[in-house]
Amino acid sequence: MPSKIGRNEPCHCGSGKKYKHCHGKPEAESAPPPDSHEGAVQRAMAWLGQHHRKGFAMGLHEALASAALACFDGDEVASERALAGLDEETWELLQLNLTEWMLAQGQIKVKGQSVSVPDLVLGPTGPLMTVGQRAWLAQQARRPLRLYDVTDVLPGQGVTVCDALDTALPPISVAERAGSHSMQPGMKIAARVMDVAQGLQFSGAVYAFTGFGGRAVLQALRETPAPAQLSAAQLAHSHSRLIIQGWLMQYLHQAPLPDFVNAATGEALVFTTDHYAVRDWDTLTQRLQAQADVHGSRETGWDRFTELEPGDEDGLTRSLARLSPQADGRRLQLSTRSAGLADSARQWFEALAGDTAKFLLREISDPKGLLRRADSSDAPARARADVNPALSAPEMTQAMAQVIKRHYANWADEPVPMLDNQTPRQAMRSAAGLERV
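Above: the chain sequence. Below: its structure as tokens.
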């Protein structure tokens, strides 16, 4: 086995140089091609750390503190307590995403003056970079942080997304190898979409939202008025702050429950069930069958539908109330989805039923209350208690089939919030709508 050559010994190639200055010299790292953006963020951060370390650190801290403060309506004690309770992994994620935001849109103090970080890095006194690195950072500063709906995922390859705020924009396909493993169709994300030679890709930082968190941010973006004097860049800056605040809120405290609204009436969604004792099933059944707007039978239950308006060509109707005979053969339930519908349905039914049915009690459940109780430890036991043990397996199967049939009978022509309250049939007329459907 040949002996190891010492660093100060003559090189074995016969050049006459010492080994450490010849074949023993470590190879320099190959520089990226001039048009590559590889290392742009690292180069910018190294330069900022050397020349503006305190200013950048303060700017990053102020951006995080400001976003956290907005999550608690200006309560400094609550926001500081929430930030102090974050674990190390979450801290790293916050710093990673906010660092990119600082490089794209941030401001820091330089000699007492507020200076744009992109202008500072890309200015004449900034770091030496390749053409590709400078172009990447400049494009990152131009690209707005936007909210997207994920509509398709190819794990390890990329995703298809649609703009959540401007639903008229066409869907776009973005190359995303790492992040695509954790994304799912239907979720909302925020990111900067960058142009590269191969197509489109995310800039690096991706803000993932929960279902409630994504809807809350979208609602905030839609409700924020854009003053006429704001430029497109200023409006994008304002939107990016709302996105970051909504994303950060997911980590600092529980998001507020959304408002549930009956699409047919615009009223708050409230599940109301009136219970009746039936004295004469035959007479009641005859009276229900005589109603033009009531369909069903004692075996399957009845639905009272809206009356068709003159000139209504599609023939679609919406259920105003559901009448469900109970398995004990003595009772009937009248179910509606809002307080207004409940009162009108009760008045209609009691006038129709007369002395064939007697009112017993009313149950009211609002969706927010149901969701809150679902988080408690006794939720499984309560859910089991709500199942009617008198229903046999065939009866339960039939009931479920009826519910599914009613739910999907007119699904293509029912307004959907995610489609900007368009029906699927209407939304499919555009490329973005078709992608969402």
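The CA atoms of residues 147 and 190 lie 4 Å apart.
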